[in-house]
Amino acid sequence: MESQRFEELVLEAVEALPQRFRDRLANVDIEVRDWPSPEELRSARVPAGRMLLGLYVGIPHTRRGDHYNLALPDRIFIYQRPIERLCRSDDEVRERIGRVIKHEVAHHFGLTDADLRDSSVS
Description:
This protein has 122 residues and is an alpha+beta fold. The protein has a single domain (3-117), classed as Zincin-like. It contains six helices and three strands; from the N terminus they run H-H-E-H-E-E-H-H-H. The chain has helices at 3-15, 19-22, 38-43, 80-86, 90-108, 113-117, and strands spanning 28-33, 54-57, 74-79. The longest helix has 19 residues, at 90-108. The relative contact order is 0.20.
């Protein structure tokens, strides 16, 4: 898939989030990358042979206090090539992007991977 089309699908997934979440996504950059770097794989503790589809880097809402100001934007990385490897069609890519966006946005709001396993967010 061309990168421009993939980025359009990411934007669609963000716009499909409920308004109450989109309104609170201030100071967050969402970036599409081809592949995660070795450092990103290590920081996410991805086991060998597994793929990383997205990554949240920042200070979750639950850890922000009065001192949180003039902070660099949080970042959400969406990795195009691993997502494409898992999908057989454009519709599957769209659906997977939507799940990854929801998962990473949930981290932005303070949910952990354990929280996400116990819920229907991801």
